[in-house]
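User: Okay, second chain of the day. Same drill as before: sequence in, structure tokens out.
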Amino acid sequence: MQIEVESATLNYEISGDSSNPALVLWHGAGCTLRMWDTTLKDLKDRFFCIAFDVRGAGESVAGVGPSDPFTFEQYSKDINAILEELEVQKLHLWSMAWGTRAAIAYCSLNPEKVLSAVFSDASVGVADIAAQKEGVKKSLSIQDKSGIARFDLPVGWNKHRDPETAQLSLSAASKFNLSEAIEDLKMPIMLMTGDHDPNLKSSKEMLQRLPSARLKILEGVGHGSVLQRPDLTVDNFIEFHNSLGLS
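Assistant: Same drill. Structure tokens below.
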């Protein structure tokens, strides 16, 4: 499905019954909405799932409207336009890695809309790409030794219509004060990060500043947890949501 917002063409997909609680899925850096495909089979019977490509990434076209289309403020307007189109007033949110940065911004700008949030692989500091890659290597080795079968990556999880604008879309993170935004988050939150993800350090630091948050450490898991262990992450997501007793 597509919607026009300030000259951009935004690509999004919905799954599940619209009478169920709405769940917005925010993809990670270099990813598209396809990254959620494996988890959707377990989510769509419980939630009205809304996955989307941020402007410039995946099948979304950046457009030429705003002077700077790549900001978290603009991305928040974009998802709100999708929500308005779908007549969704309140939502739950699940994000991964860079998408968690965008999700933190969205939650701080729209606290009245967000019922709960799960931030996978969360960090608001400078990303250590080398450490992330090393952590993935170690975690996969552990999983192999434990006899845990690897999951196939969803088809199209990192395929972009325009690779240049997809890269530019990531620049939004440097234009928003994420450390300050954390102070505005009062909704129930779960930080869910693998023990081999260098972002675990940042997740623990964020926990100290989020009185409404809890931390789930995933054993034997590295960065990109939703792609690496969709089974484990979705089970913990559902368990967290059930514990809230929210609709």
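Residues 129-145 form the longest helix (17 residues).

User: Thanks, on to the next one.
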